[in-house]
Write a structure and sequence with these properties.
By secondary structure, the protein is α/β, with parallel strands linked by helices. 21% of the residues lie in helices and 20% in strands. The chain has a 7-stranded parallel sheet with strand order 7-8-6-9-10-13-14, sandwiched between helices. A 4-stranded antiparallel sheet has the order 2-3-1-4. α6 runs parallel beside α7 and α9 packs across α10.
Length: 563
């Protein structure tokens, strides 16, 4: 079943594995990476990726760097670069034969291809038609003009916390995502352009010549650090730290600084090396908290020895697991707290059964394989990551949200169109959207009016800014990230980059300040929609369970409690 997302680009962020059938067809979610519909079988093309020379991230066991370099040379490859911090060599080699030779060497613990980069020149465009324009020029409530639409902030007490503890400018929050619109009026005051970096280059087509990111917007295909052609990263950043400035909305921590550390393609794919580069960069510049609302492509579940996979595929998954874990460990040692979206497949991650979404790149290469709890979603199930499930307006776990007693650390508002009364769009999360991306997708008309109820315009003194309603664990995670930033603001000590607080301490404070919530009664919660039902089983106690983890993040408690 395909789980959809209402977005500025018609749904490019990932649809993740789901057993929800038609139930979630009504749910519009912003998940963790791109929609990847299969085409019923990959068309063969001359010079397919398996036969071409390519670059690989070759991960070696501790202390085995010299042996790895020798293995690469003996396999007919050459060294392009290396990162001893994370224990890998970037090597050029001859496809499957090169990987097979490396696999025979005990010094090698993972081999993952580094995706090639393409170039184009024209601007990408798109179109979509949605009824019912929605424009706001003032708020029905006190606070920011659109505060009345922010049920999510009221749920976690962020609206009250703003006056008590808005967050400190010395706190840096890294947005590892599709980019951040640093010029958006409701992000610009908190955006640190100097520290921001883009670790990806737009790739117009994939290895099979099919459209991926589409034509590039700038010469050289590398977007500036204040651009977001998708909108996902901007929405995440806005939820965390849109300022209190009389425009639009306010984020959870409106006083902290935002750093764009882009690792996602325009198409929503997140490949391994940009993710590694982003995490190590965040660590080296003194970022306090990073938000990772995605999973690392191309595997939804990474298995080290799945019989359905070739040896090359097994090595790739081992490389993803190993590389990201090393980057997480490196970042945490340097004081970075890492928050991740749990995923939008409606799956008990402790009991996964079928993965038919992998490998999701190139599109059409997906296959169905059986998986189990030894296979993990990265980074959500990596060690040292705080993973967040999504809630609807009533506080119930959202129908699409993944769950699991081992995997769910915290819960936060993510939106759920099936949860509540009244206008469905109001059950989603409202946050900033890039005007350029909305225009490119045909979501705004020539006069600047929104073409759908999910797009909102706020105008002041002749200038307008745009916002969008989205659902997903991608929207839940930034609420937790914002609360973490408040805790660093309160309890951090002066250090590299500003304030520093050990990630283990931040995690402990997040759990202590969260509002515990017990499993529903009965524990087998039945979701109903479109004449169908789906049952999710909540395991655990009030102090920790598979739906809510250790509780719902609470900005007010984080701003006021004494541990």
């Amino acid at each position: 079943m395909q789980v959809l997302r209402q977005s500025v680009d018609g749904g490019r962020m990932r649809r993740v594995a789901s057993g929800l059938t038609a139930l979630a067809a009504m749910v519009i979610i912003a998940a963790c990476s791109p929609t990847a519909p299969g085409d019923g079988g990959r068309r063969s093309t001359p010079g397919s990726p398996a036969s071409q020379r390519a670059e690989y991230l070759v991960f070696y066991a501790g202390g085995e760097q010299r042996q790895a370099l020798q293995a690469i040379q003996q396999a007919g490859g050459s060294t392009v670069g290396e990162d001893p911090r994370l224990g890998y060599v970037l090597a050029n080699g001859g496809g499957d034969g090169f990987v097979k030779d490396l696999a025979a060497n005990q010094a090698i613990v993972g081999v993952s291809p580094d995706r090639s980069i393409g170039f184009a020149t024209a601007r990408r465009t798109g179109s979509a038609a949605f009824p019912d324009a929605s424009t706001f020029t003032k708020s029905p409530d006190e606070g920011e003009p659109l505060a009345g639409r922010q049920w999510d902030m009221r749920m976690i007490g962020a609206d009250r916390a703003h006056a008590k503890a808005p967050g400190a400018k010395q706190v840096l929050v890294g947005i590892i995502d599709t980019g951040v619109d640093g010029k958006h009026p409701d992000i610009a005051p908190n955006f640190d352009r100097e520290l921001s970096r883009n670790f990806v280059t737009d790739k117009p087509k994939d290895e099979y010549g099919e459209t991926l990111d589409g034509p590039c917007e700038v010469s050289g295909c590398k977007d500036p650090v204040d651009a977001d052609d998708d909108g996902h990263g901007t929405h995440v950043a806005s939820t965390i730290a849109s300022p209190i400035n009389g425009i639009g909305i306010a984020g959870v921590a409106p006083g902290v600084r935002l750093v764009n550390i882009r690792a996602g393609q325009d198409s929503g794919f997140f490949f391994l090396k940009p993710s590694l580069d982003a995490l190590t960069y965040a660590a080296d510049i003194g970022v306090d908290v990073v938000n990772m609302s995605y999973y690392v492509d191309p595997w939804l579940f990474n298995c080290t020895a799945n019989k359905a996979d070739t040896k090359k595929q097994q090595l790739e998954q081992q490389g993803i697991i190993t590389g990201i874990q090393r980057a997480i460990d490196y970042a945490r040692k340097k004081g970075v707290t890492i928050v991740s979206a749990l995923g939008n497949g409606g799956t008990d991650l402790g009991r996964p059964e079928i993965d038919d979404k992998s490998p999701g790149y190139p599109r059409g290469d997906e296959k169905e394989r059986r998986v189990d709890n030894s296979c993990i979603n990265v980074p959500a199930e990596s060690k040292g990551v705080i993973s967040v499930s999504a809630l609807g307006p009533s506080g119930r776990k959202a129908i699409y949200s993944d769950y699991g007693i081992e995997q769910t650390d915290l819960s936060a508002p993510g939106g759920d169109l099936l949860d509540g009364q009244g206008a469905k769009v109001a059950r989603s999360i409202l946050a900033a959207a890039p005007e350029r991306a909305l225009r490119a997708a045909g979501r705004i008309d020539g006069s600047g009016n929104p073409k759908g109820a999910d797009v909102v315009r706020d105008c002041k003194a002749g200038a307008c800014s745009y916002y969008q309603y989205l659902d997903g664990t991608s929207m839940a995670a930034p609420h937790a990230t914002g609360v973490a930033a408040l805790l660093v603001s309160r309890f951090g000590k002066p250090g590299a980059g500003g304030l520093v607080l050990d990630p283990a301490t931040v995690e402990d404070l997040l759990y202590k300040s969260a509002t515990q919530k017990a499993c529903p009664s009965p524990r087998q919660y039945v979701y109903k929609a479109s004449g169908e039902t789906s049952t999710h089983d909540c395991e655990g106690e009030q102090s920790r369970n598979g739906f809510y983890g250790r509780g719902i993040v609470d900005a007010w408690k984080a701003a006021t409690f004494e541990p």
